[in-house]
Amino acid sequence: MIPIGQELPQAVRQLIPWLALSHGIFHGGLLLFFYYQGWLGRRIRQERLAGAAPPLTAVRRHRRNGPRLALLCLLGFAAGPFIVLLNWGRIGVYPLHLFLGTAIILTVGGAYYLSRRIKVGDSAWRAWHRRLGIIILLLYPLQVLLGLAILL
Prior knowledge:
By secondary structure, the chain is an all-alpha fold. It has one domain. The chain contains four helices and no strands. It has helices spanning about 10-50, 55-90, 95-115, 125-150. The longest helix has about 40 residues, at about 10-50.
């Protein structure tokens, strides 16, 4: 590890813009996957409320992709402060982006936690899971736009 106050090697300094760009592209892709996940959840909910048989393929995909998305989101979040720390030597350079990212991570963690509590016929946990999912789908595009403003 490089002590604070010591200059980074030139190769690392040249890598930072590419790391920032890949961080943005990664989260842009995650945004699309979160919307797909939301679409699956909505489809499952519509069938359940209509009293129809659950769409098993959608249920399997939603359950399989949820934990993966949560982990990828956490890894992508961790990469952001790391890149900023490499570039600036401190984390709080972009406070709004950091705050919104933290809020998203906490919301994703809450949605994951609640998903493990959902049982057949139990609508309370399911309703809170849905609310957190909607919050994720509202916050994530704002986060991506803030990131674009930082990059551009």
